[in-house]
Amino acid sequence: MAGSKFAYVRNFELPDPLLPGTFMVLRLDGHAFHRLSAEHDFVKPNDERALQLMDHAARDVMNEFKDIVLAFGESDEYSFLFRRSSNVYNRRQAKILTTVASLFTSSYVYHWQQYLPNTRLKYPPSFDARLVLYPSAKEVRDYFAWRQADTHINNLYNTIFWALVLQGGETTTQAHETLKGTVSKDKHEMLFSRFSINYNLLPARFRKGSILVREPIPSETEAHADPGMVLPDVSAVEPEKKPRVKTTVVLVHCDIIGDEFWAAREYLLAD
Amino acid sequence: MAGSKFAYVRNFELPDPLLPGTFMVLRLDGHAFHRLSAEHDFVKPNDERALQLMDHAARDVMNEFKDIVLAFGESDEYSFLFRRSSNVYNRRQAKILTTVASLFTSSYVYHWQQYLPNTRLKYPPSFDARLVLYPSAKEVRDYFAWRQADTHINNLYNTIFWALVLQGGETTTQAHETLKGTVSKDKHEMLFSRFSINYNLLPARFRKGSILVREPIPSETEAHADPGMVLPDVSAVEPEKKPRVKTTVVLVHCDIIGDEFWAAREYLLAD
Amino acid sequence: MAGSKFAYVRNFELPDPLLPGTFMVLRLDGHAFHRLSAEHDFVKPNDERALQLMDHAARDVMNEFKDIVLAFGESDEYSFLFRRSSNVYNRRQAKILTTVASLFTSSYVYHWQQYLPNTRLKYPPSFDARLVLYPSAKEVRDYFAWRQADTHINNLYNTIFWALVLQGGETTTQAHETLKGTVSKDKHEMLFSRFSINYNLLPARFRKGSILVREPIPSETEAHADPGMVLPDVSAVEPEKKPRVKTTVVLVHCDIIGDEFWAAREYLLAD
Amino acid sequence: MAGSKFAYVRNFELPDPLLPGTFMVLRLDGHAFHRLSAEHDFVKPNDERALQLMDHAARDVMNEFKDIVLAFGESDEYSFLFRRSSNVYNRRQAKILTTVASLFTSSYVYHWQQYLPNTRLKYPPSFDARLVLYPSAKEVRDYFAWRQADTHINNLYNTIFWALVLQGGETTTQAHETLKGTVSKDKHEMLFSRFSINYNLLPARFRKGSILVREPIPSETEAHADPGMVLPDVSAVEPEKKPRVKTTVVLVHCDIIGDEFWAAREYLLAD
């Protein structure tokens, strides 16, 4: 074979398997999205269309990767949780990272027009990604709590900041100055007293972020569902042959810091 | 801070720096491009429009990453060479891999319409990527020789294969059978005697692949060029302050297995 | 500084931290111990003196590394379990691996004379080591069960094998032949019927291996103990300041496959 | 098999191959050798016996690992260079690191008595080790230059420091104070004017460190040599079958910062 004398270069490709038995969390971040949102006139403080586009791209990723059981999105970032026992691509790190980052990006560009029909995409946007391993369920819950707490903090700040600018007539510099040293309670009050905004009545999407969760489908509706998740089945008679449960991906905007969300979905962290 | 009690989860993010002083080669591969080319009626054996789209996406990557000095593309894959001393993103592996894979994909989807104006893209295509380190110039040359030899082998096979099918009326199964056991010389002769095709006169793009090479621009034309490459400058009086040379990315379809290409561009492997 | 222009070579030292929140298990194996045991006339099938020397070296390691809570030894190998939250050497892999391997080896050579007073050590013996991460308590238990099951299998085989050779007059080749295809029950019976050996009455050290376990010392005897383990303390009023409990390292030769051992020492896998 | 249901724990052992085509440099460092030298009354500023013991242990390592072509020792540290194409243990990092660290330590303890016959070793000493990859010959040379420059700086300081203490009657605190701010030239002069010591006439071992270099043996003396190094043989008629050259390990105390040492031994960095 003509190429065989060069094929030794493949020996430099080193294996990169991720530790089994751990939860993989992959987080995507928009690259230079300050510029992207400025150049495409994203609505401030939140552009619902752009957030929906992110959700769409994330859903496309989950439809392709059945081992992703949960995703959380806010602003220009999205985190994906693979179930603990996932053996996707034999847990090869670069393969997983790049395929997810590529597919998400592809879907984002592909569906742009659908969500922002009157805004031409001026140039190709991109994302980076990292993959973190968590050994236990506790750390996974704390990871998602960390991201949702971040959503809350950022959104509260941005909401009052842009109210000061867009409704209050302050410059962005003045608005930063106005908010310096304020705590959460101050911001709530300022929003209400100066702008008649009750923060807690704002759309849950902005306050809580987007949660895409894979849920099993009762068997009578199976026909319409994606095949997917292997649910841990304690009562199974044949432990070797777990029934492959039809699943669907549901979008919610609820609290994931407390116990309720997780208690209702123990399978997320079970296996 | 509300999120601070969860912030410990960041401790699970481990560093992933790549060994300094080595050449990074990043190779992208299309994910399920057999299906993509079938569903979008790519011309066989080569669809020039689809190849030009790949080249465009690769060029966008090189315009963003000035440390990439060379790229080689064939079919649905593209390889990028970073100069040896590159410190892009502090040589963090996941960051480099995902940003390049994402940007390439983004550009591919973004420019699809421009190259295949009459073919609606039916779904978001994706790529995976891997990154390999090569310690010396010899291995880098052999890597690119390996890919170009592969281009030659595949293209010769595909050219005669599709001639047998499209012009010779064979089924794909028959064509595979016809070619079983043939060597390169047989294929050349079969192409010429049965289909009057002189393989060596086929477009160089198909036979040699696409080479995107970063080249310095003579100073009088600097104004139109991208700033970029730091060329090794042996004669520089101040060794600490190398002049930043304006560069441009040139597309060629030439031999890169022999010495000529490299001898004319010693800077590619110098630094 | 004279050396400063060379100091850049330190940049090639890459970080190698191990994932937090996982159990580190470090396993040492004797290098070429077939030869070592042959050249120093180790008693067959088990040389108690050599096993005690291994135990001594392992204990020295545990006295130095307070985060090791359990060790298991058989033949020429020893496994060490670090508590899950250990931050020894900031979890740097090479540092942990080499320091433990070096100290164990050093102690082995240092104390040789004490355990084999009439056998001069003919040359320096060595060990290799590997480090494996386990995310959960279940896997840690299964790891130690795997090693103890291995001890059982090997020891049963070696016991009957050497009985055939030393008492039965078979050559080693004949003995291997005699044992081919026999299962556990056959070996037990052969031992009893031909050599009047009741396997279950053989020393527990040979049948179960050596378990070194770190145990807390009741406070009245604290003065004689090594300070060490930080025990998880559910009732602590000040969660930030766990009392440092005095511990001691105890040698036992008991079953660690079943639940009893672990149920009596929940702290081993707690933290 | 009794243990088979636990054997899955082996899946957590991940591969750790080192990049091919790079020079591996392994550096050992004494663990807490300040205490070791104090408790065993090492001669100040240099204890020739202890240094010879280090050299002996390093030589034992080189006799075992034929791919180590060079070693450099000073004080309580030793660096080993593997030839670039070494495939020892399939370049598995943990295996190489721990075996070398263990063997060095073993030899150190084993031969202690021989070099310090009147000093009983009070406890088992230990070493740690790290492994660094260098892509090119230049970096390897600079690595060894870095260590030898360090030897010079430390030894000059220690020589005058201990002269001030042992001959000059200063306390260690006073001696540090006396030397504060002095440059190399000052120290040379102080040594000569106050203690009549011509630094350049001190033993080369102290000033230059210990270099153990693998050298080929002319064929007529082959019988007495260790088989070892595969020398790159440009004139070989059969390139696939390089003659295995007998080698020996030679101890020298010469300059390795300049070109002379390396120019006389091009094979060290050739392959």
Automatic annotation (TrEMBL), chains A, B, C, D:
Recorded GO MF terms: GTP binding; magnesium ion binding; tRNA guanylyltransferase activity
EC code(s) of this entry: 2.7.7.79
Listed cofactors: Mg(2+)
Gene3D superfamilies: 3.30.70.3000
One example of a Gene Ontology biological process annotation: tRNA modification
Pfam families xref list: Thg1, Thg1C
Family matches, as PANTHER family: TRNA(HIS) GUANYLYLTRANSFERASE-RELATED
Function: Adds a GMP to the 5'-end of tRNA(His) after transcription and RNase P cleavage.
Name listed for the protein in its UniProt record: tRNA(His) guanylyltransferase
Organism name: Ceriporiopsis subvermispora (strain B) (White-rot fungus)
Upper lineage: Eukaryota, Fungi, Dikarya, Basidiomycota, Agaricomycotina
